[in-house]
Amino acid sequence: MQMSARIKQFTKEPSAVCAESHAAPPRTFTKVLLVDDSKFLADVLAVFFSRDGYEARAAYGGEEAIAAVEEEVPDIAFIDLDMPNLNGLEVATHLRRSKRAKNMVLVALSGLEDADIQSRAQDAGFDHFITKPVDIPALRLFMQEQAGGA
Q1: Which of 35, 79, 109, 134 has its CA 20 to 30 A from that of 64?
Q2: Mode of pairing for the β-strands spanning 7-9 and 19-20
Q3: Would you say 33 and 78 are in contact if contact means Cβ atoms under 8 Å apart?
Q4: Would you say 10 and 144 are in contact if contact means Cβ atoms under 8 Å apart?
Q5: Which segments of the chain have a pLDDT < 50?
Q6: Is 92 exposed, middle or buried (0-12, 13-18, 19+ CB in 10 A)?
């Protein structure tokens, strides 16, 4: 079974549409936060990132994600949009208002790919948008591109 993910980078212009992910300036990431109410997916992604040499941490909901960031700010966070209680859009809005976390890279994860959800994610402060199911090779390439290595 082949998995695929579409990865988009949001531009900073308010009226702009999404651009390809390789347009971002190079960044070095060491600490990664994976946020999903699916414990299985969050844990699988944390293991993947750990095996690739990142310091990875999983959080299983919005409140837990905010607590994790308050404890230690990661360089990048992959956040599921569709979570109960505090959804990914609310988490991103909260993080963008935080003085400590406002500059971290935020990546939205969603099973939906329509323009409305992408626009809402961009408005909430996400830098990138990944459509589920998550493709591990595509994630690896994404991280390499962010570091300027692809």
Answers
A1: 134
A2: antiparallel
A3: yes
A4: no
A5: 1-4, 13-22
A6: buried
